[in-house]
Amino acid sequence: MTPSLPESPILRPTAPLIDPFQRPIQYLRVSVTDRCDFRCTYCMAEHMTFLPKKELLTLEELDRLCSAFIGLGVEKLRVTGGEPLVRKGIMTFFEAMSRHLESGALRELTLTTNGSQLAKFAQPLADVGVKRINVSLDTLDDAKFATITRWGRLPQVLTGIEAARAAGLRVKINVVALKGFNEDELFPIVDWCAAEGHDLTFIEVMPMGDMSEEARLDQYWPLKDLRARLAERFTLTDLAERTGGPARYVRLEETGQKIGFITPLTHNFCESCNRVRLTCTGELYMCLGQEDMADLRAPLRASSDDAVVQDAIRAAITRKPKGHDFDYSRQKVAGQMSRHMSHTGG
Ligand code: SAM
Ligand code: SF4
Question: What is the pLDDT of residues 118-133, one digit of tens each?
Fold first, then answer.
């Protein structure tokens, strides 16, 4: 049996979190580890130096911090990484967060995963109230999968996705659009998701980490081009539906599928950004594409009073910038972040 965490009380909000651009902040993405069992080429270097374990927030500290955010009106919590399911004892954290689902303070508890550990974790996740998960999968070809993830094996992920479905979890497949890599799989991936009943979202590759400018531009497949390819076979209807995030959706009239596009490069949707990102060391990034961050670990460790932490969160939100500066036009990479995506939590 997994040990349970001592409960930290929720402080009721005195005022919701609103940033300087009048955007309500209701969505927290928390990276619970920078480690991963894959080494996706667009995300990590092959030889990564990971943080020493002592730098990481403990599961109890993660609980306290996330509960402080929930007390300030955060309604949606996405657990990510690195690979969240390789963090030791991670189910203890999910179990702890499920009390906020039960109380109604949290509307959704979810995660983004590479799927490698789902065979083991799908059912326990469903048991604590997770309803939907995002699984990152850029190809359905065994050899290409091994190439792009360096260390991953496709059958293991497909078994994991199957386990998720068997556990009653709704699965959304996230595909990073990569020129010269998965262009030829656009229709097979769409068809597979339709046949399996999975939602599907495409993502433009972002300039995070230490990849050279040339390599980054080489792999960039703008989603406006992907969309034009889709329109050669399907009738696309734009949907007004928004989830408060950067995704825009279309319906394929022929299949009824809903497809999401996350287009930080070709179309910047920062004006409606409702999220902030917490790293596994307690750094709060108010924007994925800016360097500014607030250290929440220091106030967390300095005082057992959660009000101190909430004050630090409020102060950080007043610094949320208008948006990122990613730009590949003019054949140059602008807005590059040296941080890897696995640090901030994609
Ligand atoms: N390991 C988990 C996974 O792969 O789903 C969670 C963390 S991963 C950093 C989260 C998401 O970020 C994945 O969908 C991944 O494809 C995406 N990602 C990583 N690096 C990226 C980049 N440079 N541009 C766009 N998406 C990226
Ligand atoms: Fe790991 Fe996810 Fe990054 Fe791939 S995208 S290396 S699975 S953290």
Answer: 999 999 999 999 999 9
